[in-house]
What we know:
Chain A is 56% helix and 8% strand. Chain A has helices at 17-25, 38-46, 68-78, 86-109, 114-143, 155-170, 179-189, 192-197, 213-220, and strands at residues 6-10, 31-35, 57-60, 63-66. In chain A, a hairpin with a 2-residue loop joins β3 (57-60) and β4 (63-66). In chain A, α1 packs parallel to α3. Chain B folds into two domains: 6-79, Glutaredoxin; 86-191, Glutathione S-transferase Yfyf (Class Pi), Chain A, domain 2 (Up-down Bundle). Chain B is 59% helix and 8% strand. Chain B is globular. Chain A: This is glutathione transferase. Chain A: It comes from Phasianus colchicus. Chain A: It is an enzyme of class 2 (transferase). Chain A: One of its GO terms (biological process) is xenobiotic metabolic process. Chain A: Keywords: Transferase.
Amino acid sequence: MSGKPVLHYANTRGRMESVRWLLAAAGVEFEEKFLEKKEDLQKLKSDGSLLFQQVPMVEIDGMKLVQTRAILNYIAGKYNLYGKDLKERALIDMYVEGMADLYDIIMNHDFKPANEKEKDLANIMDKATNRYLPVFEKVLKDHGHDFLVGNKLSKADVSLLENILWLEELKPDALAKFPLLQSFKARMSNMPNIKKFLQPGSAKKPLIQEKDIPNVMAIFH
Amino acid sequence: MAGKPKLHYTRGRGKMESIRWLLAAAGVEFEEEFIEKKEDLEKLRNDGSLLFQQVPMVEIDGMKMVQTRAILCYIAGKYNLYGKDLKERAWIDMYVEGTTDLMGMIMALPFQAADVKEKNIALITERATTRYFPVYEKALKDHGQDYLVGNKLSWADIHLLEAILMTEELKSDILSAFPLLQVSDHLISAWNVTHTFHCPALKAR
């Protein structure tokens, strides 16, 4: 049996955070190798470790997986977080892809110039409260179950929780109009693996600080 | 048994084209309802047919599926174009994400100003020949088989073929340094000639 998965990325949320969340929710311990400077990324490229010269990269089960979605799909499949059949998977995929669109704008918010931040935040909140959150509130309302798909934890639930928490960091009352999402958040946060991940000292990364942005950008550009 | 899948999108390629390709490669006949004006899109939204108010949307097996990747994953899974196990699926996912990134750059071109477009075409050509195509050429070289994963046609091959044809439209000799991709191109085209023959949407490119 191979050792723990090894995650290769900068010491920040970015595109790796969803992977950290999913592994944590699955109860899988992992190691991280942080890129601190451009040379670290260069070394991975020269080693031939990065299929498309990009991170995230996760060493797992003898593979060097790249491409966030491929990594998440593999973890979800391996740890039974991907539904029981094709149709459940279709629902999970639809929900996750919708949330990925929201996640992209949330993730990029920290990197916006100061004079654009307010407008950007308004756009994020508009999309969240009018396009995305109502969908998931309705899903939970319609079937009355604790989880989004198949009455069982899946990567859709993990993705939803991750997005909700980040939205609340940007605007604490983001869930004001969504009572079922509020109870979803409370329930999910209390699940042992997730509770552990939400505690200080876990692999969960904080919001990026202004002062760290130049360093992170320098690695990739 | 459900009827044919029904695709809702504009007449253009956009995000629906990969879906048309995959259905055609799987030998699945489908119908299309084209969005011709804003009111058509509004109607779909008001009907509650679009989960996130967006197209592509595909009616298939009693579902109204949205989100391109979700739709493609479902079709691939249903028609055995997604590998035989988790590891093969991981490889297919990786390869498809690469071609998605490449095709995404090309799809954005029509909406760009002339000077930006020219710069991006150069970038696309560079990425295609230094980041993406070498990966697929090497994959075919290393295992010496006809298909990218598991010695069997998969979504990865169809997606690569689409990406190759799209890039060739930008630069016709883009495969000059990739002999194995050239062979793959012809092989799959030949394999699919019966399918594409029955698919007017692809014929009328």
